[in-house]
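Thread amino acids onto this structure.
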């Protein structure tokens, strides 16, 4: 079966005419799928991963997990574009390209700016450039408004946790680090090049806030555990929060702005309560 499909694509190369949007798209990452829905290009989506919540109930073919793709199934769908991540196996990418399928690789963005650039690129590939630019501009305005409001404050220290056992943190040169820098806060891992940390490191750096990306029951356990360290500023001030990872860890302009708004509001509420207690 695989050989027949391969020969078919060798004879009839599937491609999109230059300047014409791609109409049969396979997404190999949840953020790409979410982006297609934001761009109202979901009708062009023919396959996605089993982690793509945006496509749930949309009768889209499941062709991959977040790291392992079913190449035979992808080819059988006859896509003219595959959106791949940096986690996609290079051999799979090579095979798809050999049979004439365009593969666009998007590596994990290192900043909010890169998120916006990638979103606009997906918009261009789907013929939704105008829609993409509008959504990016709206997101930028939201982020700027939140940043302006919070940057008038003192620079609080934040620990943003995205894993447990081992403990893992958001580090510089990642888009999630921008949540903190744009809010005028200091990431306690600002000098680290690896996200693996110890509790002793967190305690020594004494963050004012701890944000935990949702990890199901593990996230709840981590929240309870941090509150046991009463010497931590974040614990003593009841400023340890769980953030929805489906929003915070998903690099699209819209979800980035939503996360900024959530974090900004949590920090503003805690400042207000602190001020009320002083009065």
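Threaded sequence (279 positions):
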């Amino acid at each position: 079966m695989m050989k027949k499909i391969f020969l078919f694509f060798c004879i009839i190369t599937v491609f999109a005419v230059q300047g014409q949007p791609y109409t049969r798209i396979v997404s190999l990452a949840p953020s790409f799928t979410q982006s297609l829905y934001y761009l109202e290009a979901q009708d062009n989506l023919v396959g996605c991963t089993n982690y793509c919540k945006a496509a749930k109930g949309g009768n889209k073919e499941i062709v991959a997990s977040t790291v392992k793709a079913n190449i035979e199934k992808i080819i059988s769908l006859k896509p003219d574009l595959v959106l791949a991540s940096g986690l996609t196996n290079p051999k799979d990418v090579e095979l798809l390209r050999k049979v004439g399928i365009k593969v666009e690789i998007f590596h994990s963005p290192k900043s909010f700016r890169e998120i916006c650039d990638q979103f606009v690129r997906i918009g261009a590939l789907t013929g939704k450039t105008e829609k993409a630019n509008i959504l990016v501009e709206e997101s930028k305005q939201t982020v700027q408004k939140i940043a302006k409001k919070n940057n008038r404050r003192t620079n609080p220290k934040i620990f943003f946790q995205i894993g447990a056992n081992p403990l893992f943190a958001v580090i510089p040169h990642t888009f999630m680090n921008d949540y903190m820098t744009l809010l005028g806060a200091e990431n306690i891992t600002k000098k680290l090049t690896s996200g693996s940390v110890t509790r002793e490191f967190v305690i020594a750096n004494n963050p004012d806030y701890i944000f935990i990306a949702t990890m199901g029951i593990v996230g709840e356990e981590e929240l309870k555990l941090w509150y046991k360290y009463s010497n931590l500023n974040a614990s003593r001030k009841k400023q340890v929060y769980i953030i929805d990872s489906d929003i915070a860890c998903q690099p699209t302009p819209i979800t980035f702005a939503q996360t900024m708004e959530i974090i900004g509001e949590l920090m503003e509420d805690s400042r207000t309560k602190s001020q009320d207690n002083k009065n």
